[in-house]
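Lecture notes, continued. The same structure-token format from the folding unit now serves as the input rather than the output. Read the line below as a description of shape only.
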């Protein structure tokens, strides 16, 4: 990965290498920073924001209203994109909602809402973008996840569960789409000072939360600790994540990993991912499916 994430001169992004990128959740946080990074590098970005009121000049001339929880909004956004271009090189599923609190305190309605954004929203966008990528025989899906999806922590259960579901979907896409020339990457950021944490959902069922006694205040104490860390001189720079995604987008085909860890508990998570990558490759090979790990056409004949 050191070669992939090495600094690349801006001159590399010539017109022939210019990517057409759709990014969701661009009104703030990683999405906004990624849009600015890609525009600076000369790429064309369709920056999706939830509503017209969130459109900003700094998101570029192709910013669009795109609510990932609405089939109609996604269809309208992609109809508008198709009027301007006949291809999409990259889709970055960045839009997301966080949640913090004891898991029992969240209602089923809250979990449903969380999954509608984080999981179903990503699936809606993939279904909209993939026909164009498949027609071109190339493309890249990027799913912005979290290290918590692989290493859950207390008070982040529903959020971690939603992102773990996203990762399972993304990994299945990786194998199913590779023979079509389409790559899939999961980005796993650690904690960063973005609006995702400050706007996290809290449990609605106060009675269930109160039943946990002293543990009920744990989320607030954890947020206090994070806030203090984020305001300290050694605070992680949120730009690290969009910079890493930009380099993934500009990386040569066939060099992109399934998962990329950025910040946080990087070494432990990278070790875990390396282990599961190896075991998954063995499992696929045992079923005669190892060709799905390569950017090449699936054989027309032969046993599966």
């Amino acid at each position: 990965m050191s070669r992939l994430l090495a600094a690349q001169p801006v001159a590399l992004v010539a017109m022939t290498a210019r990517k057409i990128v759709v990014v969701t959740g661009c009104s703030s946080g990683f999405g906004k920073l990624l849009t600015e990074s890609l525009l600076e590098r000369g790429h064309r970005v369709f920056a999706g924001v939830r509503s017209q009121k969130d459109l900003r000049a700094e998101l570029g001339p192709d910013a669009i209203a795109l609510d990932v929880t609405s089939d109609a909004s996604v269809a309208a956004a992609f109809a508008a994109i198709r009027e301007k271009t006949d291809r999409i090189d990259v889709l970055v599923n960045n839009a997301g909602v966080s949640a913090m609190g004891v898991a029992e305190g969240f209602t089923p309605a809250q979990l449903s809402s969380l999954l509608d954004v984080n999981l179903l929203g990503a699936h809606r966008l993939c279904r909209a973008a993939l026909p164009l990528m498949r027609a071109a025989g190339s493309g890249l899906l990027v799913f912005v996840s979290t290290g918590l999806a692989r290493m859950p922590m207390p008070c982040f259960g529903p959020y971690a569960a939603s992102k773990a579901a996203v990762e399972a979907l993304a990994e299945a896409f990786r194998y199913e789409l590779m023979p079509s020339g389409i790559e899939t990457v999961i980005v796993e950021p650690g904690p960063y000072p973005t609006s995702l944490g400050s706007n996290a959902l809290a449990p609605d069922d106060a009675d269930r939360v109160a039943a946990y006694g002293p543990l009920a205040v744990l989320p607030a104490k954890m947020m206090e600790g994070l806030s203090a860390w984020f305001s300290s001189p050694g605070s992680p720079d949120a730009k690290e994540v969009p910079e890493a995604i930009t380099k993934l987008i500009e990386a040569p085909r066939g060099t992109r990993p399934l998962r990329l860890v950025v910040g946080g508990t990087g070494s432990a998570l990278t070790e875990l991912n390396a282990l599961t990558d190896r075991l998954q490759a063995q499992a696929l090979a045992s079923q005669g499916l190892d060709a799905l790990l390569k950017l090449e056409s699936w054989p027309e004949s032969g046993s599966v």
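Point for the exam: Residues 108-136 form the longest helix (29 residues).
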